[in-house]
């Protein structure tokens, strides 16, 4: 067992735990925490995993706050890494799980801390559920319990991200057809968990995913960033640049003998691709593009005639899985793809097992170093939409018994905002500031987040007469209280 893998994993986990009660992003993280709030409405929701939190609260009385959701994310990453270790064991016909593969998988998953806030979200849930699906799909025996468990994971995925559930479901059926283990009994076993979940939610909470999706599709598709072609483009642009860099690198490794001339072609291609696709302040896509170059090297230097057809299918599935999991997102793949890098890492491990490549220790070192850098930068140094975490030193109690450390400026602004909404249980906050009402101990009416004018009009076609907390990235529709309360004057 390489010691650097163990040390890198321990350091990454320590960085997560030390920052677990510090900082808060009022935009995306505000949406995540409200989706776990038992009193928050989610009418016509596209992300409906809040139903699980509401049912869990109804049974136990437990409400997961900011710290709780961050702990849950780390827990799900540990479970996801276990699923990937089981998947690798099944594929390699090994008797025991490899602790080394588990650590590599966990580090690959923790690279996701490099982009977006630290609390549990649909991105992290979809990755963990996909890892569990891989573990079950790779099991050699097709048993009823296995198919029901697989159906349960796919069913939960419908609530997390419906586009991912549909695409992964199609891939699952295709793989079962290829392995000649699909019949009507298997299909029934795959479907029944979702049907049962829908029934449970309907009879306990009077709503379910189908009811919400049927009501919410018209509202969401009215938004420009959720048009069908736009969603295809968000994934397709990432696939295009990745494939272009792959082809240039592959041909260089395959056709050019001298390493100097290989580098002379690949480095400029990498440099141009990186800066052409560098559309935001984040640079996480450096690791995705570098991974593309490594893939090109693997393919150029490996003898695929040594691989069984089944392993070739799995490698292909792992290569396309990041694009499958991303589809339906309104964020470009090269920004969000760092959450899915772990599946490419798993494909590297499978490829290395039977290839003629003698030493891949430097790849493991690279994964360890990359994870350390991404966790430190994305969690502590440049956390999403925040100042460095070490600047969060003031305690703020946002709900009874639940607190978080924020910056002195944030605490001062929140104290002023509290006096403006003394009696209200709901505050309408637009746009992209769901976390502000949450920190004030409130919820939003109708939806846990309002991102643009069209979405707001969809929920309030007749306007809104109460005070509106406003962040000016778009104008307010007609019929809304003017002037709104500008959040920038307080935070």
* Count of DSSP-assigned helices: 20
Number of strands: 5
Largest sheet: 3 strands, parallel
Structural category: mainly alpha
How are helices and strands ordered from N to C? HHHHHHHHHHHHHHHHHEEHEHHEE
Overall shape: it is globular
| Average pLDDT number | 92
Give the radius of gyration: 23 Å
Low-confidence stretches: none
- Which strands sit side by side, in order, in the main sheet? 3-4-5
| Relative helix content | 55-70%
The N- to C-terminal Cα distance equals 48 Å
What does this structure look like?
- With 491 residues, the protein is mostly helical.
- It has 20 helices and five strands.
- The chain has helices spanning 3-18, 28-35, 50-60, 66-92, 99-110, 122-137, 144-160, 162-178, 184-205, 209-221, 228-255, 259-276, 285-301, 309-326, 333-336, 341-354, 361-381, 408-418, 435-439, 453-459; strands at residues 394-399, 402-406, 428-430, 468-470, 485-486.
- The strands form two sheets. It has a three-stranded parallel β-sheet, with no helix packed on it. A two-stranded antiparallel ribbon has the order 1-2.
- α1 packs parallel to α17 (361-381).
- The longest helix has 28 residues, at 228-255.
- The protein is globular.
- It starts with a helix and ends in a 5-residue tail after the last strand.
- The model has no long low-confidence stretch (mean pLDDT 92).
């Amino acid at each position: 067992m390489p010691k650097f893998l163990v040390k890198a994993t321990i350091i990454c986990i320590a960085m997560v735990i030390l920052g677990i009660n510090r900082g808060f992003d009022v935009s995306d993280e505000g949406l995540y925490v409200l989706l776990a709030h038992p009193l928050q409405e989610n009418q016509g929701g596209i992300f409906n995993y809040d139903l699980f939190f509401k049912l869990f609260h109804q049974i136990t009385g437990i409400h997961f706050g900011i710290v709780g959701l961050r702990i849950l994310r780390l827990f799900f990453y540990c479970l996801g890494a276990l699923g990937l270790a089981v998947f690798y064991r099944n594929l390699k016909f090994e008797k025991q799980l490899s602790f080394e593969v588990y650590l590599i998988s966990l580090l690959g998953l923790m690279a996701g801390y490099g982009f977006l806030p630290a609390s549990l979200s649909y991105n992290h849930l979809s990755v963990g559920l996909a890892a569990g699906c891989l573990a079950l799909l790779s099991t050699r025996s097709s048993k009823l319990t296995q198919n029901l468990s697989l159906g349960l994971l796919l069913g939960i995925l419908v609530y997390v991200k419906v586009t991912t559930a549909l695409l992964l479901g199609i891939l699952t059926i295709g793989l079962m057809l290829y392995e000649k283990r699909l019949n009507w009994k298997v299909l029934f076993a795959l479907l029944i968990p979702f049907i049962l979940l829908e029934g449970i939610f309907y009879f306990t909470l009077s709503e379910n995913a189908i009811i919400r999706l049927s009501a919410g599709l018209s509202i969401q598709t009215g938004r420009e960033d959720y048009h069908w072609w736009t969603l295809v483009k968000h994934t397709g642009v990432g696939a295009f640049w990745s494939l272009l860099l792959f082809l240039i690198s592959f041909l260089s490794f395959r056709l050019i003998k001298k390493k100097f001339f290989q580098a002379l072609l690949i480095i400029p291609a990498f440099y141009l691709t990186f800066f052409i696709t560098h559309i935001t302040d984040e640079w996480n896509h450096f690791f995705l593009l570098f991974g593309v170059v490594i893939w090109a090297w693997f393919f150029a230097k490996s003898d695929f005639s040594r691989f069984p057809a089944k392993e070739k299918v799995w490698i292909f599935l792992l290569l396309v899985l990041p694009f499958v999991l991303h589809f339906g997102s309104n964020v470009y793949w090269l920004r969000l793809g760092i959450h899915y890098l772990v599946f490419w890492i798993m494909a590297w491990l499978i490829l290395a097992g039977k290839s003629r490549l003698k030493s891949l220790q430097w790849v493991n070192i690279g994964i360890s170093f990359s994870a350390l850098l991404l966790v430190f930068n994305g969690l502590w140094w440049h956390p999403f939409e925040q100042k460095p975490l070490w600047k969060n030193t003031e305690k703020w109690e946002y709900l009874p018994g639940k607190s978080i450390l924020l910056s002195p400026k944030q605490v001062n602004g929140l104290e002023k905002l509290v006096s403006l909404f003394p009696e209200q249980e709901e505050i309408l906050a637009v746009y992209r500031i769901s976390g502000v009402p949450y920190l004030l101990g409130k919820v939003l009416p109708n939806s846990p987040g309002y991102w643009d004018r069209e979405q707001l009009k969809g929920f309030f076609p007749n306007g809104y007469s109460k005070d509106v907390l406003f962040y000016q990235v778009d104008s307010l529709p007609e019929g809304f209280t003017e002037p709104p309360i500008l959040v920038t004057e307080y935070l």
